[in-house]
Amino acid sequence: MKTIRWGIIGCGDVTEIKSGPGLYKATHSQLLAVMRRNGALAADYARRHGVPRWHDDAEAIIRAPDIDAIYVATVPGAHRDYVLRCAAAGKPVLVEKPMALDHDQCQEMIGACRTGGVPLWVAYYRRALPRFIAVRDLVRQNAIGPVRMVTSRQFLPLKPQAELNPRSPPWRVDPEMSGGGLFVDMASHTLDFLDFVFGPIEAVRAFADNQAGAYGADDIVTASYRFASGVLGSGAWCYAADREEEYNEIVGANGRILFSTTKAVPIRVLRGDSVEEIPVEDPPHVHQPLIQTIVDELNGQGQSPSTGESAARTTWVIDQILREYRAGSGHRGATGGQA
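The structure assignment produced for this chain is given below.
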């Protein structure tokens, strides 16, 4: 088995614990170089993580003959450019989620990687995380009978104004950098995992708005959708609520499954009056199981579950949900069917 030598473009916060260590702790995997525009920060990251070299120019990563694969961990607004450059250089690429600012950019990235003959993966790591595999397996094993519907819910209090300065907002609530607000950043994980379990969403009805006025992006979203498999779904997301609350509920003919997207709490299976709790701990570096599937695929062993094609479907759903809001109307439900 070959050791896959990685380079990171954008060694920011997400790479500190969630993903970066997974690149050098996965079997047959090595983190060889990191890049950040601020060279001092790149050097500091390399020193702390034992990475052989650092750069402040992405081309040094993209053109390096000793780097086999590249992880793009920048803000979403930069994903398309870096993926196209990696594809042109013939480098397999793992890109952070959400995949791009919109579905059109996703399709361009997929096309470029196809033309370049390189694989493209997206860091929807829950597709390989044991806790979420356990939820999928419960559904596949008919633990609650035929699935009728799934509901999702996430409420968060509005962050202090000091963290949401409209003159310098965090990138997650700057649509030019992230493609939307906290819904795009956080709910994309849930929507992608539901695609993993139930297959593609084929139609969407939704409303979105900005009610608190703390930043330019949406802060409240409600949506209903239909999966091609026949399962129905709905969700409510509010980032200016009174308290924190988050869960998903899969409703079957014979019971229900409750689980969290964001917290490693036990999965709960309800059947009649009985409640079964299934604890599944997350690993220290939550990206590592997905990284391992990518390394294995590059070594001819299996296929990673989070591809450009699957991630593009999630971005398509987000585009449908936010279409009317982005168009400047918060008063009409978005409708559409996926081609």
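Interim note for the steering committee: DSSP finds ten helices and 15 strands in the chain. The chain has a mean pLDDT of 94.
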